[in-house]
């Protein structure tokens, strides 16, 4: 439905309380309470009708207009009761004249179910007692109804004076719409205001709106593709479209909703896209408010499934309805960005938008760039016309290489020309050597590949040129681990590799910043990074489908077979370094040998390290930390040592802490914070506990940690021949900071509690219950247990995965203790709502358990512990199965084929 649809008054139902009912209300002992009761019945009925129409599939704009119409009807009835019955002025003096005007979004005639009502009480000049009485009574009734009101009471001159200096006030008044009261006063004011806007230079207002948009994006999330977007204020949300409305109204204040300007500035196709996006976003927002029961603007995980269900989305294959809905949302957000870009360009061309670049201040500046048909236009790269691409389709790719070489933004005219020329991307163009060379230059040799590839993605060219990429555009994964859509995550990872190569992350990644310059085939690394997630959602699994897709893409791009195999290997194994480092015992020589066999040669190892660092960092803010960095670095260095022919036999960790072990033997137990414990860049506090080994020791320690609110991010257990045990834990607090850093006294108390638990002393408090987290409750996390008897020659490796919660590690440890198994080492990892923990276990005699009924019972008991749910309020949405980042890829990995890197290096 067009934003220029019928006005709210046209859709409001006649009716409401009768005259007799209002007369009784006026005569009541409490007229305010009586008026509230009368209005509530009609107000609730009108809102219910709008909600029902929404459920039946009415368009988003029409639903917003129904809500605005309901508000109109209620306010007009309240105004008449207040001004004609309670505080009448049959023949008002000049000072008694008063008008009620809707402003802001409500003035435009659209309203979300729980939005504020923006009202202006307009008077000729200074207030008088009757005016104050009318305003006060109306506001109290509105508040009693539970309506949020944004109100102001001003004179005509006050409004005009503020509109000259305050762009927020001017914006609100652009939407002014009289509701009730003195029509002559209201119309005269609106006429004066529009005359003021018409004769005022629009550029300062337009600049203010665009600056306000940029600040809003920074606050709500500067990236358009965050997986929990803000529908109203986020990038690509409703407020961006409203900004276009406001700019249009400032250029033509007499035109309803700025329609004349929008029709002039946007092509029919862009106008249609505008209206479709406006309707989709309004429908989403209306459902979001109704599901949340409040004015909620952020589409959080707990609300997404129910909003998707109400909007009629259904699952398809393995893709649940919520992921299909969110993909559509992000495609609409992308379209909104393109509309904003197009409008800005046309405003610049009409010199109605201030420009910042010096080159753009030179009127008519146009410079040729050495490629026929490409020009620099006011500091941006443009084309002489769409016919440039029709004559030579490979120039679609060359355009973006040119933008990178000359460090130019893309002119919206060129942006539109590319979008309109996508039909030129044929199978022959995808195999064209010149087009492939331009693409690889952007990807691997460009100055700013993140920016340029993002532009290609938003025009639609990247997905058209690489069909494998097109399948992940806007794709989401319904889990708490990934902060961005799959395509945005990948583009950010490419940007991170570029930053590492240019030395911008040397302080955070000194090792990677040095190693990246030793990689022989940087193009293969960047191509593997671009393609590493294209298999997500595939029938054969992410890694296998990704490898198949990568091979197709490399063949089309003309890579030789050796380089193709290298890219395919990287895609198939891009999780290997992360999985081995976080889920296996890096200090165990068998782990290192198995990983070395998988990798095969140092070039693969170096390339895989850079890919892994970028992949983890690009998942989202705070996902990369020093603890993960140390694990990955340790495995890398030990694997590199194997390639050099060095011995990697494991050392006895008890030898590193002689004083602690001596104190434990003397006192029965000892605990201390290790020197330099802010390991890996200050991400965790390392605590060591020494004691006499006994069944259930690790479980007792885990319970003490849970009771103290300590999150275990890593654990290592060692036992000496004389029965002395050493347990080393890396701990964080609930905020992800090193435990005890904010409150050192907590760390002192924890050490005492650990020593008491190690001695088996009773009296430990139960772990505090986890506070109900509605976002986590939205996920159905299926418990999984894998028991691997091949990985280690001396222990069974048990990997468990399930919903993360407080006390989970203690519960799992208690299961192992009950089965008579000792935990030799524990490796703790979290992926959003999912915990993935690995344990190396032996029987009571220190031997590796054997397959049989005992291990089958262990698996069942572990899954029962994993499936234990925290109690809390019922979730808003029915839980949806979380998108599964494979619990473990280690079992699928096979020893490496003969090395395919350019040059194997001898040890």
Structural class: alpha+beta
Number of helices: 39
Label the overall shape.
globular
Number of strands: 18
Kindly describe this structure.
This protein is α+β, with helices and mostly antiparallel strands and 907 residues long. Helix content is 51%, strand content 11%. The protein contains 39 helices and 18 strands. It has an eight-stranded antiparallel beta sheet, sandwiched between helices. It has a four-stranded mixed beta sheet with strand order 3-2-1-4, with helices on both faces. Strand 2 (117-123), helix 6 (129-144) and strand 3 form a beta-alpha-beta unit. Helix 13 (268-292) packs across helix 15 (321-349) and helix 24 (486-501) crosses helix 31. The longest helix has 29 residues, at 321-349. It starts with 7 loop residues before the first helix and ends in a 26-residue tail after the last strand. The model is unreliable at 1-14, 356-364, 677-681 and 894-907 (pLDDT under 50).
